[in-house]
Amino acid sequence: MAKITINEKEYYTDDFNEDQIKAYNEIVFCNGENQRLSYNLQLLKDRVEILSRVITENQDESKEEA
């Protein structure tokens, strides 16, 4: 099975009891969710930047046309 490092000490999941396996599985799940949310957060930040450019570019074009 897998190996996990906690506080600079390595643990092998083969040696885990039932409670440790549940905790390990939740760690894996939480890490996956954290990565997914970080990805979504970056997408949203990028989208805000793009939309902000659309507003400012359109404002600049409106002033030039007037």
Share of residues in strands: 5-15%
* Structural shape: rod-shaped
**Major β-sheet, in short?**
2 strands, antiparallel
Q: Give the N-to-C terminal Cα separation.
A: 69 Å
What low-confidence regions span 5 or more consecutive residues with pLDDT below 50? none
| Element pattern in H and E | EEH
Task: Enumerate the strands of the largest sheet in spatial order, edge to edge or round the barrel.
Answer: 1-2
Number of helical regions: 1
Structural class: alpha+beta
pLDDT averaged over residues: 92
Give the number of DSSP strands: 2
Task: State the helical fraction.
Answer: over 70%
> What integer value in Å does the Rg equal?
23 Å
Q: Could you explain how this protein is built, in words?
A:
- The protein is built from one helix and two strands.
- The chain is α+β, with helices and mostly antiparallel strands and 66 residues long.
- Strands 1-2 form a two-stranded antiparallel sheet.
- The longest helix has 48 residues, at 18-65.
